[in-house]
Amino acid sequence: MGVTYGNKSIKVFTKTKHFKKGNNSYDAKIYGVIEGPVNQMLKLYPTEFKFMRHETKEMQRKPRNKVDE
């Protein structure tokens, strides 16, 4: 079971992967996993996830020109 921080949709837990070592032996490696929506991770924890670059579709759209009447 993982740990949730502040927001319930961001989960931090460990995951074990097994790699074949020989005929009948496997080497287990444990990895740390952070799961959750990227937008929320960047908004809630900007310093922790400053290594990530992410653009939403809204950011990629051309800005609309406002016409003043």
How does this model look, in words?
With 69 residues, the chain is of the alpha+beta class. It has one domain. It is built from two helices and three strands; from the N terminus they run βββαα. It has helices spanning 38-44, 57-60; strands spanning 3-5, 7-20, 26-35. A three-stranded antiparallel beta sheet has the order 1-2-3. The protein is elongated and about 75 Å long. It starts with a strand and ends in a 9-residue tail after the last helix.
List keywords for this structure.
alpha+beta; single chain; three-stranded antiparallel β-sheet; 3 strands
Question: Summarize this, please?
Answer:
The chain starts with a strand and ends in a 9-residue tail after the last helix.
